[in-house]
Amino acid sequence: MTTPTYRVEVDQAKCQGHNRCYSMAPELFDVDDYGLASAVGDGTVPPDLLDKARRAVANCPEYAITLTEVPL
Amino acid sequence: MTGRQAPVSDWATDFDHTDPTWVADPYPIWDELRRNCPVAHSDRYGGTWLPTTHELVSEVAYDTEHFTSRAVVVSNIKPTDLDLPAPIGLAPPITSDPPFHAIARRMLLPAFSPKPINALEPFTRSLCRELLDATRGMSHFDAALEYTRHIPVRVIVQMLGFPQEDADIFRHFITQVLENVDQSVEERQEVIASGELDAYMNDQIAKHRAEPRDDLTSFLLEAEIDGNKLEDAHIRGTMVLLMIAGIDTTWSAIGASLWHLARHPEDRRRLIEEPALWDTAIEELLRAYAPVTMARMVKEDFDFHGCPMKKDDWLLLPFPSANRDEREFPEADAVELDRVDNRHAAFGLGIHRCLGSNLARMELTVALQEWLDRYPQFDLADPAAVTWSGGQVRGPRSLPVRIL
Ligand code: HEM
Ligand code: SF4
Question: Which of B57, B70, B136, B282 lies most in the core, judged by the most C-beta atoms within 10 Å?
Answer without folding.
Answer: B57
